[in-house]
Amino acid sequence: MPNKAIFFDRDGTLNVDVHYLHEPEKFVWIEGAIDAIRWANEHGYLVIVVTNQSGIARGYYDEAAMHRLHDWMNAELAAHGAHIDAFYYCPHHTEGKLPAYAKSCDCRKPAPGMILRAIREHNIDSAVSWMFGDAASDVAAAENAGVKGVRYTGGSLCELIRATIETS
Ligand SMILES: [Mg+2]
Ligand SMILES: [Zn+2]
């Protein structure tokens, strides 16, 4: 049977957006984010983060640092009985400094590449899945992948998700 998923943007949605975040000590959870992830876990949704990380192309931090941050996030979540099932990231940017990453791609949101790849790799039914993010490009990426996209504009992320999904 196909899976259902909730896709989350990272910066500005799960954590307070400080530019080019890669250090756990600068990570601050958004209000209701941990509860939102746990709610999704408990209601049978895969939790998948899809995040643009142009700081890698710009040479501000490397992929290993980002993976360390993501491992730290999951360790924090584990202490609260919650987990993220998968992280997808776009390290590219056309104006990047590092040649390997300095290109246009099909994964940088609003392109749907990360979501489409997750759908394939996790056997996800897009029609029963959702994407929450703080930017118009998050909603656009979702819609480009056939997933319902919802803009997060502040307040409790968990309340938004419950209000959206429980009444749909
Ligand atoms: Mg964001
Ligand atoms: Zn990309």
From TrEMBL:
Its EC number is 3.1.3.-. InterPro entries: HAD-like_sf, HAD-SF_hydro_IIIA, HAD_sf, Heptose_bisP_phosphatase, Histidinol-phos. The record marks T51, K109 as: Stabilizes the phosphoryl group. Coiled coil: none annotated. The record marks R108 as: Contributes to substrate recognition. It catalyses: D-glycero-alpha-D-manno-heptose 1,7-bisphosphate + H2O = D-glycero-alpha-D-manno-heptose 1-phosphate + phosphate. Mg(2+) binds at D9, D11, D134. CDD domains: HAD_HisB-N (cd07503). Keywords: Carbohydrate metabolism, Cytoplasm, Hydrolase, Magnesium, Metal-binding, Zinc. The active site is at D9 (nucleophile), D11 (nucleophile). Belongs to the gmhB family. This is D,D-heptose 1,7-bisphosphate phosphatase. It comes from Selenomonas timonae. The gene is gmhB.
